[in-house]
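pinned: reference chain
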Amino acid sequence: MKRAKWILVLVLVLALPGNGARAQDPAPEVAFKAVHRVTLTPADEATLLAALADMNAAVAEAGHSEIRYRLYKVVGKQGGSSRRRLPL
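pinned: its structure tokens
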């Protein structure tokens, strides 16, 4: 009998509004950027550029030609730690 009560309580808790699956938030209306700072050797840079080209082609083929992955190269001595958050 105790087991039946606990099962009933569990069913009621799961049936309460707001506990079901929720839809994802809608996509943002404006573009956003993510920045990742990495240190690459020339060979790694070439490999990453080739991979980005493949990804851009696949994304464009999927119908999202406005989305692109880019690699920006920064030269010179960089200040600060690469582990801190950067404002966009």
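why pinned: Residues 30-88 form one domain. The CA atoms of residues 8 and 21 lie 21 Å apart.
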